[in-house]
Amino acid sequence: MAGVAQAAGKLEIFSWWSGIEAPALDALVKLYQATYPGVNVDNATVTGGAGTNAKAILKTRMLNGDAPDSFQAHAGQELTGTWVVSNRMEDLSSLYKSEGWNTKFPKAVIDLLSHKGGIYSVPVDVHRSNVMWYVPATLKKYGVTAPTSWGEMLKACTVLKAKGMVAPLAMGENWTQQMVWESVAVGILGPKGWNDLWAGKLKFTDPSVVDTFNVYGKLLDCANRNANDLNWQQASIRLLTGEAAFNIMGDWAAGYLTTIKNLKPGVGFAWSASPSTSGTFIMLADSFGLPKGAKDRAEAINWLKVLGSKEGQDVFNPLKGSIAARTDSDLGRYGAYSQSAARDWKSKVIVGSMVHGAAANEAFTSGFSTVMETFGLNHDSTMAAQATQALAVQSKIGQ
Ligand code: GAL
Questions:
Q1: pTM for the full model?
Q2: Residue 7 has what pLDDT?
Q3: Which residues on adjacent β-strands are paired with residue 269?
Q4: Atom 1, ligand 1: residue with shortest CA distance
Q5: Ligand 1 atom showing the smallest separation from residue 250 Cα
Q6: DSSP state string for 201-213
Q7: Is 123 strand, coil or helix?
């Protein structure tokens, strides 16, 4: 990135990285302000993990012609299937060309941001959805090892419960429950089956998919009953208090445990792939785009330049728990977790996350939260599978 440029004016960026999720974004904003001094940055955040609240507010603003200058959207269907198809985003192909980004981001990531020949946002990170977190000392205390399959996980639950741990699996609110199902589904269906679901080639009513709900239901029996009342950080804390042994969560948990909780990777906390998914990397990427009609277009383009730069990515990602979307990042600046994720990103089979917008569009993802809510009450796998299939048809999955 070029040195300090003369700039003035204002810029509004919109995301859900607030409170304890804020440090990585704050570092990026600081870099932007150092590069473009004089610009007044309105860092508009809406609290709520996975953007559950932010996305609703964004929708209202977009429909009312009050678009932020740049906003967070997941690479994949969440961006293209929602905002690009409705013709609300600017094509950034010329920016990709002038910044040399076509060779700096992996083709697979650029493909997720592309629609009919245009590229519609700039990725700031790559996160992994299928990670299992634990505290080594807790496992040692109870004499269990990290499970590598869902069968082993259920066995570990029985052992831990027999030894007095009431709810070995730490779970939080609805979207985090969807993440557990996502890991179970990839584990049972394999990457091909998972991709077939989103391509409309495998029906949700297939017995293999019904089985994903059966296993997920057993995991609910292993989890804390107040899951719906906990956000993702509160679920993580159950590991630290020793109330739970395992948590399935995206690797923003690594950011939280290191940046906020100051824990040493491998000591204060440890990780492995979610059970039965060690060969697969369920990916998602946060990106920012340029909505048509942005009030501060020039400043927004400069913001995108900063977040797509090598320095921008290497300032943001070590704090966030993610890896850079760029292929030329300086891994020496990253912690042990991200270094292992970077290795896995290169060697595992990559599939897209449904929960975080890579594999499925917003209509499906938000509708699936109702399926999960009902399933949490009745544990009826066949009904859940049928409801999901109906939702897939309604949301035009695979079309
Ligand atoms: C995801 C997002 C991550 C992290 C997480 C928890 O959707 O991609 O960057 O913010 O939600 O809020």
A1: 0.97
A2: 59
A3: 265
A4: 50
A5: 5
A6: SS-TTSHHHHHHH
A7: strand
